[in-house]
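We modelled the chain as a single entity of 335 amino acids. Its sequence is:
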Amino acid sequence: LLNYSTGYIDGWVKFDYGFALADQLYIGSDVTQVSNLSSEGTDITKPDEMASTQTAYLSVRYPGDALVLTAGAGKKRRTSLLYEDSGSRILPSTTVGYDLSLDIDKLRLYYTRFDKHSPRNKDNWGSSLENFLGETIEDVSYHGAQYRFDSGLTLDAMELEAKDYLRERYFKAKYNKPLSDESSLQLSFIYGNQTDAGDLFERDGLGNYAPAGDLDVDFYDAGIDYQSGPYTLSLNYLTVKGGDFNRVLFTTDHGTWKTSGSNLSSYGLEDEQMIRIGLGTDFSQLGIPGLYWKLQGITSNNAAGYDNFSRHELISYLNYNFQGNLKGLNISWLA
């Protein structure tokens, strides 16, 4: 990956460019399937290499004293509360479109529209968006707002639509309360909704992935975090009502669900009730700068359509950010 940015020239115009190459490391002769790199020939142990422009993005801004207006267009990896280009597998996926944002003191307003997507295992500029019947979705657009209160309360609201296909809404309230110089309490609540949005929605169903009929699904996610010194204890509860929360915006989308239910498994089945308990440790406060570890235990039950349904996870995440001359490099272990 090679990335270059001019930074804002004279404070108002910027160009970002990124180029990426990817090739196999080693594929054994007895391998029968390779899913991440495609091959035009018959020998799957020798897949095609990938080379593509990952970023080509021009942005301008008006940096006023109390108001900052930013506009940009082009290809890049986009991220938001309801949509995020996947960063896993071979290359980060990207989208082609434009973005607008307005910042006024503690208020932020934003709008994005894109009509092409480059998957994480392709090296093209971008392909049209499609549903699972091969019909073209004209574009995906989203808009939202965030307001940060002096009291420690932050509110987020966002709406997204894959045109004539799928609509999503997301509301989040987060409150952070310092208890002392070394401890704090954080409360959060998220409500989300996913509905069909037009004639392109597959109302006849998609086999085991999606049942026939209209779509109108809600989820509720409540959380509390207590931080004391290097330790953070967290508790979350999530439930889904009205159907399974699992539909993607187009066929090559990998789904975005920024809740406590998005773990190694996605806890989004109808009527499923999930509880997650976590303990995080910041070892920089214990004399090891850059080291962080989090352990999470997850359990759920009561999903509709199953007898005696339950599932469980134990997740360990260890991350180290190198210091000194290697600053900017990190290594992680997920188990």
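As a brief sanity check on the tokenised model: The radius of gyration is 22 Å. The mean pLDDT is 91.
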